[in-house]
Amino acid sequence: MIHALDIDTKVLQQMGGEYILAALPINNYRDIGLSFERSFVTKAGYWKVYLYKVR
Q1: What is the pLDDT of residues 17-51, one digit of tens each?
Q2: In Å, what is the CA distance from 28 to each residue of 1, 16, 23, 33, 42?
Q3: Is 41 buried (19+), middle (13-18) or exposed (0-12) by CB count in 10 A?
Q4: pTM exceeds cut of 0.85
Q5: Residue 22 CB burial class (10 angstroms; 0-12, 13-18, ≥19)
Q6: What Cα–Cα distance (Å) separates residue 36 from each residue in 4, 6, 19, 40, 44?
Q7: What DSSP string describes 29-55?
């Protein structure tokens, strides 16, 4: 679990970034301007992936 991700999502958005993929859940996603979309696992994959959208 990522307790406090330190990323400037405004700059990420200015650079054209729309989503963040993470291998671990991000606890402070709301505080840094992200919204949780979903998590998923594929049959061919080994890890659970967490998808966050930049707000």
Answers
A1: 999 999 999 999 999 999 999 999 988 878 899 99
A2: 10, 22, 15, 9, 26
A3: exposed
A4: yes
A5: middle
A6: 15, 16, 10, 12, 23
A7: TTTTTEEEEEEE--TT-SS-EEEEEE-
